[in-house]
Design goal:
This protein is mainly alpha-helical and about 500 residues long. It has 22 helices and four strands.
């Protein structure tokens, strides 16, 4: 009996800080390790190709880099502090772009844990807050979801190095610092450089972080009016300082949306995506309105309402609005962490029936999440085994083409080309700072029109300065490839070759 009592006592006295870091390193460190070894590189539509292109351009010349997508110079929103500093480090240590981006994954994992620790301690006012929030963020899902902007494990194992993840980490640090500043424990001056760094790195992620920051300034139950003004001033000064970033203006990147006609992507208004966003995360509302937070849930509830309202704007064909479902889920997970803490404090006093019901519900959610995640991973692994490494497969097709000679690529095949250092005539997704992107993309779509007469295709290609066309025979991710296109290009080309699913056609 003494041995059992001793073990029980040791469990009760386990350090919550130590437990948080042990679990966090295993979970997020594992995600970073998976990312470093490559994850489903058969997918031409992954964001990693854009980031690799920017890193390669910066590593070639970090002071005056060439545009990573189009021939010639020009700024890029991807020339931000994270990649610029990483490029200098990689050149110093002799890393290639893959090694550099793998290192970025480890840094982001560490910063994410630091951010959760800082914010959760300040928000929940409990030593167990960080582990509760970590548990909510990792396990608060019923179905797997993998898309940049989410904080799910499916997203992190594929892209933990991305700037969007860094902005989640920096936002947590910002929110925790604002709470401490309102409590007169931290000087608002620290917020200024942090705000500037966030804005210069990722404008959408920074905007999301600033929305929550504004809600905290308005609704946090503690804090003098003067201190709220000082915090607001520090954030505004940081925004102004971000305009001095020498590689591009963050505000210009916001104004120049890139390609406003783009309509691709996941349907976040579908039943499946709404389920992913709200089950079981929706229970977080209970945690946010609970008396245990003593009013501290109000700013998070306000932020949640703002994000949901912005998300609903997307019903009127505003593509950027879909990205606000991601921070809405994060707000719900913050509430879910509060609910976990409340249940832990009151567990012994709950009726047995309530305990069993909650335990059964948790098992159902975890079972559903585990089974669907396993299915998702197995399906993706099967596709990867069948298709192989798309990046390595694409490389032989363009090895003899000068990097600054533009290639016309069909849809997302362009990303694999720019990742290798090749430039293209246009990119298929919105890209701020390319002012004529809609016209460029319209010309590329016309070039790959199966009904376009050969003479007109050749004339258009010459006007664009394009000699080579590259296409992925598998077609775009979410729409079928016109079956007449490949035979039409093969009949017109003066030379053709293929590598795996990729086809190259030389028009002249």
């Amino acid at each position: 009996m003494d041995g059992i009592a001793g073990k029980a006592a040791s469990v009760r006295t386990i350090s919550p800080v130590r437990l948080f870091w042990m679990v966090g390193v295993i979970v997020y460190g594992g995600a970073a390790l998976n990312f470093a070894h490559g994850h489903f590189l058969d997918q031409a539509s992954r964001d990693i190709w854009q980031h690799l292109a920017a890193l390669r351009a910066l590593m070639e010349n970090p002071v005056d880099p060439l545009n990573p997508f189009l021939p010639g110079g020009g700024g890029s929103r991807h020339f931000h502090p994270q990649w610029v500093s990483l490029a200098f480090l990689a050149r110093t240590l002799g890393w290639d772009a893959w090694q550099a981006i793998a290192f970025a994954g480890g840094v982001n994992a560490l910063l994410l844990l630091v951010g959760i620790q800082i914010f959760a301690r300040a928000f929940y006012r409990s030593d167990w807050g960080p582990i509760a929030l970590l548990g909510a963020m990792v396990l608060g899902w019923s179905l797997p979801s993998s898309h940049t902007g989410y904080h799910s494990m499916g997203t992190l194992i594929e892209g933990i190095a991305y700037p969007a993840v860094l902005l989640i980490a920096l936002s947590f640090i910002l929110w925790g610092a604002i709470i401490r500043a309102l409590e007169d424990r931290v000087s608002p001056a620290w917020l200024c450089p942090l705000a500037a760094l966030m804005m210069a790195t990722h404008q959408l992620g920074a905007g999301i972080g600033f929305i929550v920051a504004g809600c905290l300034i308005l609704c946090w139950p503690e804090g003098r009016f003067r201190r709220r003004v000082e915090i607001s001033g520090a954030l505004l000064l940081g925004l102004a300082l971000s305009a001095a970033w020498p590689y591009h203006s963050p505000f210009t990147a916001i104004v120049q949306a890139g390609n406003p006609t783009w309509t691709g992507g996941i349907d976040y208004y579908s039943i499946q995506q709404i389920w992913i966003a709200t089950v079981p995360a929706g229970l977080g509302v209970i945690g946010l309105v609970g008396s245990g937070l003593a009013g501290r849930g109000r700013p998070i509830l306000l932020a949640l309402a703002v994000f949901v309202a912005l998300f609903l704007v997307g019903l009127w064909d505003v593509p950027i609005a879909t990205r606000f479902i991601m921070p809405a889920v994060l707000m719900l997970h913050i509430g879910l962490g509060a609910l976990f803490l409340r249940l832990a404090r009151r567990w012994e006093s709950l009726p047995k029936a309530a305990q069993l019901s909650m335990f059964a519900f948790a098992l159902v959610c975890l079972g559903l999440y585990g089974s669907t995640t396993a299915w998702y991973l197995l399906r993706e692994q099967e596709q990867y085994a069948r298709a192989g490494d798309a990046f390595s497969t694409m490389l032989p097709l363009t090895a003899d083409i000068p990097d600054q000679e533009p290639v016309a690529a069909y849809d997302v095949a362009a990303w694999l080309l720019v990742a290798s250092g090749q430039r293209v005539a246009s990119v298929p997704w919105p890209e701020p700072l390319i002012a004529d992107l809609p016209a460029r993309q319209a010309a590329i779509e016309q070039l790959f029109d199966a009904d376009l007469p050969p003479a007109e295709r050749l004339a258009l290609a010459r006007r664009l300065g394009v000699r080579v066309l590259v296409i992925d025979a598998r077609g775009p991710l979410r729409r079928p490839l016109d079956p007449r296109l490949l035979p039409a290009l093969a009949a017109q080309a003066v030379a053709a070759r293929q590598s795996g699913p990729f086809r190259r056609y030389d028009l002249y």
